Amino acid sequence: MTAPIQGSHPRHGLDEVIHAPVRFSIVATLAAADKAEFAFVRDTVEVSDSVLSKQVATLEKAGYVAVTKGYVGKRPRTWLALTAGGRAAFADHCRALRAIAGDTTD
């Protein structure tokens, strides 16, 4: 049995970590800002705290998201931000999606 050939189809440019719908939504939300509060991302993406936590952990492990914890007054807060690598991976992923869809403007 021979190994599959890595072709030139744009799907090879998709990032498996980002491609999952919830993770893609998280990264897209974070791409629009320097950082965002956990609750804002949760509400924007319309997921529960536990789902967001699990998906952010996957993105953090991949080096795509940085998590910062702190306080606003006496209330604990968590902020999420894309790393430089996360921004680059998101841009590459979007470029691959546009190529698959036949958009050649990029």
TrEMBL record:
InterPro entries of this UniProt entry?
WH-like_DNA-bd_sf (IPR036388), WH_DNA-bd_dom (IPR027395), WH_DNA-bd_sf (IPR036390)
Q: Which Pfam families match?
A: HTH_34 (PF13601)
Q: Which domain of life is it from?
A: Bacteria
Tell me the SUPFAM superfamilies matching this sequence. Winged helix' DNA-binding domain
The residues covered by the Winged helix DNA-binding domain are: 22-100
Q: What is this protein called?
A: ArsR family transcriptional regulator
In which organism is this protein found? Streptomyces lydicus
